[in-house]
């Protein structure tokens, strides 16, 4: 792996000399399942969506998305 510039977000990019595959430093892998479980647990305790967002340090939109996803399942 060798350095290959930076991404639009400013992260270091790398390229494999053998296969040519490109990758980024510390890629975003999505929301952890633990965070979703915490959101649901706090909702069961009747905490507001705004309160959950503040307590967990996530966006209100993220809280709403998690709830929407859980309701449709």
Task: Explain what you see.
- This protein has 73 residues and is of the alpha+beta class.
- The protein folds into 2 domains: 1-28, no CATH class; 33-72.
- The protein is built from 3 helices and 3 strands; from the N terminus they run E-E-E-H-H-H.
- The protein has helices at residues 33-44, 49-56, 60-72; strands at 2-6, 12-15, 22-24.
- Strands 1-2-3 form a 3-stranded antiparallel β-sheet, with no helix packed on it.
- Strand 1 (2-6) and strand 2 (12-15) form a beta hairpin.
- Helix 2 packs across helix 3.
- The mean pLDDT is 88.
User: How many domains, in number, for the residues?
Assistant: 2
Q: Distance N terminus to C terminus? A: 41 Å
What is the strand tally? 3
Give, in order, the helices and strands.
Answer: EEEHHH
Q: List the strand order in the largest sheet.
A: 1-2-3
By secondary-structure content and strand pairing, the structural class works out as: alpha+beta
* Poorly predicted ranges: none
- The proportion of residues in beta strands is 15-25%
Topology, element by element:
Layout: E1 2-6, E2 12-15, E3 22-24, H1 33-44, H2 49-56, H3 60-72
Antiparallel strand pairs: 1-2, 2-3
Helix pairs in contact: 2-3
Could you name the key traits of this structure?
73 residues, alpha+beta, 3 helices, elongated, three-stranded antiparallel sheet
Quick summary of this structure?
With 73 residues, the chain is of the alpha+beta class. Helices cover 45% and strands 16% of the residues. It is built from three helices and three strands; from the N terminus they run βββααα.
């Amino acid at each position: 792996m060798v350095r290959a510039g930076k991404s639009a977000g400013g992260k270091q990019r790398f390229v494999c000399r053998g296969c040519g595959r490109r990758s980024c430093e510390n890629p975003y892998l999505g929301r952890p399942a633990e965070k979703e479980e915490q959101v649901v647990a706090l909702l069961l305790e009747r905490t507001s969506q705004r309160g959950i967002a503040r307590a967990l340090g996530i966006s209100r939109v993220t809280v709403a998305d998690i709830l929407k996803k859980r309701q449709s399942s």
